[in-house]
Structures are given as structure tokens and as C-alpha cells.
Amino acid sequence: MKPHLVVLTGAGMSAESGLKTFRDADGLWEGHEVTEVATPQAFERNPELVLEFYNQRRRQLMDVSPNKAHKDLAELENDFDITIVTQNVDDLHERAGSSNVIHLHGELLKARSSGNDYDIKAWTNDIALGDTCEKGHQMRPHIVWFGEAVPMIEKAIQICTKADILVIIGTSMQVYPAASLIHYVPKHIEVFYIDPNPTMHSRGQLTFIPKTATQGLEDLKALLKQ
Length: 226
Description:
The mean pLDDT is 91. A hairpin with a 2-residue loop joins β4 (106-113) and β5 (116-122). α5 (68-75) packs parallel to α8. The chain has 2 domains: 1-19 and 66-105 and 149-226, TPP-binding domain (Rossmann fold, 3-Layer(aba) Sandwich); 20-63 and 106-143, SIR2/SIRT2 'Small Domain'. It is an alpha/beta fold. The chain has helices at residues 11-15, 34-37, 40-45, 47-62, 68-75, 92-96, 153-161, 213-225; strands at residues 4-9, 81-86, 101-103, 106-113, 116-122, 139-143, 165-169, 190-194, 206-209.
């Protein structure tokens, strides 16, 4: 039995691939207030703006590739049973070869019916106003917006309770409910935190690796071999 390595990843994981982190220092996301593009109310108010915002993110995703950190995580599957729980909506983990990825905040390359949360389709092109499901409801990005439930959180909690090792990469651990996942891992297990500016408070068995994802994964691989 391989040890179960649970990895929580955030925007810093994909930053080195050229994808911007969620919000810049000025609090804006690609020049927009979050309330303009990432809430159900924004979609009701101005669906064209919201759809075009995510169409741009989807196009941008098509132009980038997994970085070395994504690939290193995939290679670690040779020695560990790995589950990745990501806050990222890109597919770079999967493209790098990781076989077990849970997306807490949805996926850019999927769309769903605005009238049925379970009617989800693979979607690589733009979503246009007028693109509807079979029952006539407008299609929307398969993204968890602010104020919406996080459907995969319960599965992620169950995964965390069975971790032998926890690795946190490129996330401030400030956004809930994702930030709460660390409280569900067994208290005795080792936790590694890779981030240039770690913000999480110390706890037992916690090792900080204050580096970028690509640099920090090199250190992590060495530590896991000890």
C-alpha cells in the first residue's frame, strides 16, 4: 500500500504557467470587481459580461501548459497514492498526468445548465448568450461563484480524513470552506506548506517551504525520500 498523499493547491500552483492568481494586489480580477463577474447576481444582472469574462479565461487556458510543479506531482504517483484537491479551475493537473483531481471551485472546461446544477457538459469553446441546455435554460460556466455552495467539499473532507501526509501549495489558506480542510487531516500526520509568503499559523508536524511551486516541489521530493 502506497502512503496516501493529499495535496491542496491554489492559484500559486498555476502562476508559473502564466495564469494570473485569483486577485491582484488592488483586489481586482483581470480589471473587474469580483461582484461584477463572480456571483450569481452578476450573471443575472449582466450575463454577457460574465460569459465573456470566462470565455477570455478559457481562451487563456488553451495557450498555457503545465509547469514543472504540475509534472512533479504527477510523477510522485509512482511512490504515493495521491489525491489533489484544487481551488484552481484550470485542467493543468490533469494535463500533467495527475489521475485523481478534485476541483472545489469548478472547471473552466465545463459548462452547466443555469436551470439544473447536475446538467454538466464538457465545453472548450466560448459560451454565448443563447447557448441553452435541452430544456431551454442558458448555459453558464461550471464555476462555483461567491455565495454558492461548494458541492465537492464533503468529498474533499472525507479524503483529508484519510491522509497520511498533507501538502499545501500556492494557497493562502484564507478562502473558506477550502481553508477548513486542514482541520480534517489526522493531527499526527506531517504537513508541508509550499508558498513564497506562507500565511498559515504553525501547528504540530508543519514544515514551511517558502518557495514557489516549482522550487518547492524540488525540496519536497527530497524531504519525502528521507
